Amino acid sequence: MPRIFILLSIFSLISCHIEEKREVDSSPYFYEKPLLLNDGINTASADLHSINTGTLTDLVNSVRQGEIRGLDSIVISKNSDLILEEYFAGWTRDDIHDLRSATKSITGLLAGIAIDQQLLRLDTFVYPHFAENYPVTDNWTPDKNKIQLKDFMNMSSGLACNDDDSASPGNESKMYRYRDWVKFILDLPMVRRPGVWFSYCTGGVQVVARMIENASGSSLSEYARNNLFDAMGINKYLWSVTGSGRTEGSGHIYMRSRDMLKLGLMVLNNGQWKGQQLVSTQWIAQLHDPFYKFYGYFWWHQTFRPDDASYPETNALYASGNGGQQIWIFPDLEMVVVFTANNYDQKNVSGEIIKNYILPAVYGL
Asked: Is 0.85 topped by the overall pTM?
């Protein structure tokens, strides 16, 4: 059974409308300080933070002139001040965008909150957790009882699930045919011991989402609203559901770019938003200490090495979704960068933008 989305006609109308926007504005751009709104985000001119506005101007003009393709928005915060906010191809700050797999990182934050609340533990065994939901699973082996929550959150469950391999039994394209995605994943055969091998598995995120729901007694979307979104003023979003009516923790939350920035700022500020500790400092530290060098707990990691050796390397923690939906967090620079884009199933351009424009602007080049 194919996946379904929130059963509201407005969802289809909004999502179809915004995904079709491709208006082009090729007029010359001149840097302007972002607009200050009553949404909890401070704004400032980039030059107040010693950032080269000429380089930022070149970036925006490159997008407008088609040299950089497919971008829908770029939002940058430095030292907790929003210094650049630009939209392209007909998009505006009030539009919500499909975050695709960047949603996984939000689910990772919610798992952290559930752990903070002692509803779950990283070493919670997954199959015993679902004993009442699924007393019998296919392809049983005792190794399945060894899989822990952290194994799914590090994409190392050991189950036969690899989204990068179309022949994999657990590939997401196969999962979407089923109503119950969690059962589909739990029924997969084991191919490795848990916790030893990275294999990107969208369905595993849905298992974690269901564990949060079971432990909290609420849907994932309700849990997010009550424990994260309401406190941050994130009040305009849509979140898709699976065929069984469960919140799709693995993808497809629709959110505004400024609200994506809020999430990045909260992580940058060690889990705090406006003085309120929403996610524990311990969980944020966990995100910065990944199981793999490049990935852990549904967040990606990357190191940027500038061509000019006189400038330092910098590390980034980021959420990423197909098409270029990304939230980049640079702790050393106290900077958050948000992209939304329509480059689906193509190479992300964000890394090159950061290296060729944003970091040089920060370094005053």
From this structure: yes
